[in-house]
Amino acid sequence: MPSTDDIRVDGARLAHLRKRRRWSLAHLGQQVGRSPGYLSRIENGKRDPSWELVERLAEALEVPATDFVAAAPTYLMEETCRTRAI
């Protein structure tokens, strides 16, 4: 599992995906088990989530995590490259 330092979320993109569903921060927070304030800090670039939370956000929003992760953890990029090379 990557550390939080490895994950950079595009907060504006995450906010766009949430608003596209017409969800409030409170509603998304209920879906992923986090407070609206915590999610707001992620959307505003003041906080980076754990990979576990990224996965829960992607599942709740029904999108791949790559839709809002600005920089994927190195080990995931390497794994993707190996998979594509086969």
From TrEMBL:
It comes from the Bacteria. PROSITE patterns: HTH_CROC1. Residues 14-68 form the HTH cro/C1-type domain. It holds the Pfam family HTH_31. Keywords: DNA-binding. InterPro entries: Cro/C1-type_HTH (IPR001387), Lambda_DNA-bd_dom_sf (IPR010982), TransReg_Diox_bact_type (IPR050807). PANTHER family: HTH-TYPE TRANSCRIPTIONAL REGULATOR (PTHR46797), METHYLPHOSPHONATE SYNTHASE (PTHR46797:SF1). This is Helix-turn-helix domain-containing protein.
